[in-house]
């Protein structure tokens, strides 16, 4: 979830959608300004981070990619844990990928309901052309934010993240446990503490 | 799935997930499957509905316990030594970035019918009601010896070669009584039985140092840490590591039959009519029941309570060791308690476990001395499972089978098994001094 401190927010953002829908392309365009025509399946990248300035605050996104675990429906519950937002991506040239995007919305709702999660906002990102109207209607019906993007031309890519950043709740009630992240330090009386949730 | 892999891993328990992660990072092509539709196998954490399904055969937990999703109940409760091997593996692989930990509040020991805080250094020894005034001074001298002991500096050895001197002889030199020896051996050095007394003292001294260093690391009331949301997070985090490095994940795969050639060597794994080829198989004992033997069993009680364990200073998370001698048993019993502060249950509830290496077939009777320390419980469940170890020759069949999780209170023996398996599989020794975080190329 989003955490706030001196107008700085940290927000975990997860990507959902079928293999090849363009999740990594979207993030690589946003984080590195890159686009590769034949993006290989994601290897070695656990997550990306990128900071955005919006009106009153800076938002640091920690963006989790699926690491291919969506392929056989083996995403672990921990993937969703603590996410402030999810982007569900589908490929506009494939109506199959759109119908599966709807399945991802259901899966997300199920995870939020069944697991100990506090997903406050859900976003749906997509493309233009095919199903545009249908997709927008679907998004509206399900209370999702919808935007068409192109990682290739960069159209709307920054905007989708900016819009999410704007919509993150600013003042989250303090979540119960703030745990610590382990870091490698000498044992002598050090205290590794960092913020979560 | 009709592809060829270097390694197929079966079961997503913690050991299998750590290995899957390490092997993927090494560049091996890994397929990881589980017959269940969830991660974690025997080391998963269950919500309330899953717990009721497993133990009561229905899925209707009473509403007064609160929301099912607020529970993460470990099927294999253990704490993590803050300076122990699992932490080193977590840091080495940079898996820490997926997890949040909190220190465990208290570490206690059962002695002469009462629960006492475990004194872990010379200062605490002087204050502890566990010992009389003269015994305290003797214990303090022993603690100082252990604290100052440095394996590579003979000046700190006080003329004793701890690879030869037995623990009993070392303790005799300080004149400690049996009562003190009992809590030092079982609650500080965390031995599960009394064999250590006749073994070289070095192991016990190292274990005491690990306890003290772990205690110093996070300034909690115990040497332990524990992940938020329960231990089920650990296998998931290592599975993600494996996936990030190219490992393929398939859950809910029935059967998972290991296939062999004429010479008895592994050739692949079949599930749902498809066979994936591989050079090696890594699995938990349940996937190759013909290649393991039973070595013991664990008895466990799981209690949901509305109060902390009595006499533990209202600790939100705590461990209590009941040394075997105090109970007239052959192996120790221990209590483990966690709560809302680690996000394993709703506010006001506590999850307590009583575990031991079973010596009978009646867990409810056998675990009674531990259960009696809990006070009233809202619900209690009893579990008993067999422990297995592999009997195959991995050099001949290329099957690498983990040993079942034992009844120890922490993960040191778990990681020893994993590191040994890693060496058997790869021929390499894992150098835990290397920090892998730099290897994550595409990161910020």
TrEMBL record, chain A:
The keyword Nucleotide-binding applies. InterPro entries: P-loop_NTPase, Small_GTP-bd, Small_GTPase. Keywords: Nucleotide-binding. Pfam families: Ras. SMART domains: RAB, RAN, RAS, RHO. GO terms for molecular function: GTP binding; GTPase activity. The keyword Ligase does not apply. PANTHER family: PTHR47978. This is Uncharacterized protein.
UniProtKB/TrEMBL annotation, chain B:
InterPro entries: FAD/NAD-bd_sf, GDP_dissociation_inhibitor, RabGDI. It comes from the Eukaryota. Pfam families: GDI. GO terms for biological process: protein transport; small GTPase-mediated signal transduction; vesicle-mediated transport. GO terms for cellular component: cytoplasm. GO terms for molecular function: Rab GDP-dissociation inhibitor activity. Belongs to the Rab GDI family. This is Guanosine nucleotide diphosphate dissociation inhibitor. It comes from Trifolium subterraneum (Subterranean clover).
């Amino acid at each position: 979830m989003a955490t706030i401190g001196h107008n700085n927010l940290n927000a975990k953002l997860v990507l959902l959608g079928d293999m090849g829908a363009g999740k990594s392309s979207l993030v690589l365009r946003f984080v590195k300004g890159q686009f590769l025509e034949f993006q290989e399946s994601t290897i070695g990248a656990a997550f990306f981070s990128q900071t955005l300035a919006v009106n009153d605050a800076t938002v640091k996104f920690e963006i989790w990619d699926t690491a291919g675990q969506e392929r056989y429906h083996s995403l672990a519950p921990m993937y969703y844990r603590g996410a402030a937002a999810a982007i569900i991506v589908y490929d506009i040239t494939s109506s199959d990928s759109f119908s599966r995007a709807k399945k991802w919305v259901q899966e997300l709702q199920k995870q939020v309901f069944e697991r100990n999660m506090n997903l406050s906002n859900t976003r749906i990102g997509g493309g233009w052309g095919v199903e545009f109207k249908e997709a927008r209607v679907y998004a509206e019906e399900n209370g999702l934010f919808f935007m068409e993007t192109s990682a290739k031309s960069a159209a709307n890519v920054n905007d989708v993240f900016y819009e999410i950043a704007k919509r993150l709740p600013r003042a989250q009630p303090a979540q119960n446990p703030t745990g610590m992240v382990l870091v490698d330090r000498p044992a002598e009386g050090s205290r590794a503490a960092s913020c979560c949730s | 799935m009709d592809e060829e892999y270097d390694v197929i891993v079966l079961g997503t328990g913690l050991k299998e997930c750590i290995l899957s992660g390490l092997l993927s990072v090494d560049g091996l092509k890994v397929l990881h499957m589980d017959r269940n539709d969830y991660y974690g196998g025997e080391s998963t954490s269950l919500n309330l509905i899953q717990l009721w399904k497993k133990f009561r055969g229905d899925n209707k937990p009473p509403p007064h316990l609160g929301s099912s999703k607020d529970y993460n109940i470990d099927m294999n409760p253990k704490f993590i030594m803050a300076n122990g091997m699992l932490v080193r593996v977590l840091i080495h692989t940079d898996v820490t970035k997926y997890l949040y930990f909190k220190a465990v509040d208290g570490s206690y020991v059962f002695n002469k019918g009462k629960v006492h805080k475990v004194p872990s250094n010379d200062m605490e020894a002087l204050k502890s009601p566990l010992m009389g005034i003269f015994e305290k001074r003797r214990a303090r001298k022993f603690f100082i010896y252990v604290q100052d002991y440095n394996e590579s500096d003979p000046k700190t050895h006080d003329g004793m070669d701890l690879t030869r001197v037995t623990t009993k002889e070392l303790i005799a030199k300080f004149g400690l009584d049996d009562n003190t020896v009992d809590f030092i051996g079982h609650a500080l050095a965390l031995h599960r039985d009394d064999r250590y007394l006749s073994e070289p003292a070095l192991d016990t001294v190292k274990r005491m140092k690990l306890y003290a260093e772990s205690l110093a690391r996070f300034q909690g009331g115990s040497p332990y840490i524990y992940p938020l949301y329960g231990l089920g997070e650990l296998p998931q985090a290592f599975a993600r590591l494996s996936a990030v490095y190219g490992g393929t994940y398939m859950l809910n795969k029935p059967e998972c039959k290991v296939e062999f050639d004429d010479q008895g060597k592994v050739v692949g794994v079949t599930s749902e009519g498809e066979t994936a080829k591989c050079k090696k198989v890594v699995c938990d004992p349940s996937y190759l029941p013909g290649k393991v033997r039973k070595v013991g069993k664990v008895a466990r009680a799981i209690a949901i309570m509305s109060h902390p364990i009595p006499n533990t200073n209202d600790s939100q998370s705590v461990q209590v060791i009941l040394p075997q001698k105090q109970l007239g048993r052959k192996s120790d019993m221990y209590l483990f308690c966690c709560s809302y502060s680690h996000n394993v249950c709703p506010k006001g509830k506590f999850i307590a476990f009583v575990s031991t290496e079973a010596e009978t077939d009646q867990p409810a009777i056998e675990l009674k001395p531990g259960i009696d320390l809990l006070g009233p419980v809202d619900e209690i469940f009893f579990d008993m499972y067999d422990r297995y170890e592999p009997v195959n020759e991995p050099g001949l069949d290329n099957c690498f089978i983990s040993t079942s999780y034992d009844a120890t209170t922490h993960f040191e023996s778990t990681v020893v098994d994993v590191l040994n398996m890693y060496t058997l599989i790869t021929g390499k020794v894992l150098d835990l001094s290397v920090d892998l975080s730099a290897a994550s190329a595409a990161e910020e």
